[in-house]
Amino acid sequence: MAGLVALIGSINVGGNRVKMDALRVAFEKAGFTGVATVTASGNVLFNDDGKDDTEGRIAALLKSDFGIDSFAAVRSRTELAAALANNPFTEAGEEKLVHTMFLEGQPDASAFAQLEADHQGRGPEKLAPGTKALHIDYVDGLGSSKLTKQLIERRLGCRGTARNVTSIRRIMEKMKD
């Protein structure tokens, strides 16, 4: 079982189509071990020695092997569990509508306040900051939401990739502690 997951942004959305088998092979070629994918949306389980910039290495392989300028939020099973535990909407909301957006960095409190202010009155979504994460309850669904990934990234000043509660739990089931 793998100890880490790369939550890759912008895979199999827009024009960035990548077969999960090809992604697995690229990770193995880059020296990662225990590689497996979970669902077809850029969740790669793996082990790494942690000696260098894992997220940077993954971003470089996405660019070189697939021509995709993206990033990977690398998290352990413990970090995923903490993200679920710290998401104030996990228990009250609908699992497929409650998301954690895993961020490239930690935005400052003023950036989160600006995002909240800009979204005020634009929809029913609920927001809460987390550790290198933003927790969101898309109360009425994502399809009609005005709280877009682009808006969130502009306001917070960093890229992110979101997974719903169901997906996070599915990923955690496949990982070791």
Fold and architecture overview:
InterPro entries: DUF1697. The chain is of the alpha+beta class. It folds into 2 domains: about 5-75, SP0830-like domains (Alpha-Beta Plaits, 2-Layer Sandwich), CATH 3.30.70; about 80-175, 2-Layer Sandwich (Alpha-Beta Plaits), CATH 3.30.70. Helices cover about 35% and strands about 25% of the residues. The protein is globular.
Indicate the CATH topology of the largest domain: Alpha-Beta Plaits
Q: What is the helix fraction of residues, given as a range?
A: 25-40%
CATH architectural name of the largest domain:
2-Layer Sandwich
Derived structural class: alpha+beta
**What is the level 1 CATH name of the largest domain?**
Alpha Beta
How many separate domains? 2
| Continuous helix count | 6
Number of distinct beta strands: 8
Shape: globular
- Provide the low-confidence segments as ranges: none
What is the distance, rounded to the nearest whole angstrom, between the alpha carbons of the first and last residues? 9 Å
Q: What is the percentage of strand-forming residues?
A: 15-25%
Nearest-angstrom radius of gyration?
16 Å
Largest sheet: 4 strands, antiparallel
Instruction: Give the rounded overall mean pLDDT.
Output: 91
Order of helices and strands: EHEEHEHEHEEHEH
Largest beta sheet: strand ordering:
2-3-1-4
Summarize this, please?
By secondary structure, the chain is α+β, with helices and mostly antiparallel strands. Helices cover 34% and strands 23% of the residues.
